[in-house]
């Protein structure tokens, strides 16, 4: 039994229910308005003995691969942190994973734009 269509349906339902509007601007290309899903933030791993240092949590966003052939480091993404929130400029710091139907991107606050 082919579960591809069921997986696609589940993915689309997730993006529809949990997604935020994201404007993605890759270097030298026009901006693309899409939907991104924020993954639950989690703290950075710290070396032993540094437990008391304050750190910002990793911010990971999922973007559909069907809309982008690649999302490289430095790409600008403008998106709110919550559904209905105020949009903030983010920059892709790293690609955490590439899954069959989406990219997981580590974002940091953009500066100097």
Structure description:
By secondary structure, this protein is mainly beta. The chain has a single domain, classed as Thrombin, subunit H, CATH 2.40.10. It is 13% helix and 39% strand. A 6-stranded antiparallel β-barrel has the order 1-2-3-6-5-4. Strand 5 and strand 6 form a beta hairpin. The longest helix is centred in the first third of the chain and has 15 residues. The termini are far apart.
CA radius of gyration is 15 Å
* H and E string: HEEEEEE
Q: Assign the CATH class.
A: Mainly Beta
The total domain count is: 1
Number of continuous helical runs = 1
Helix % is 10-25%
What's the count of strands? 6
CATH architecture descriptor text: Beta Barrel
Query: Which structural class should the secondary elements be placed in?
Result: mainly beta
Please give the order of strands in the largest beta sheet. Answer: 1-2-3-6-5-4
Distance between the termini: 49 Å
Shape call: globular
Poorly predicted segments: none
What is the fold named in CATH at topology level? Thrombin, subunit H
Mean pLDDT: 88
Largest beta-sheet characterization: 6 strands, antiparallel, barrel
Strand residue content: 35-45%
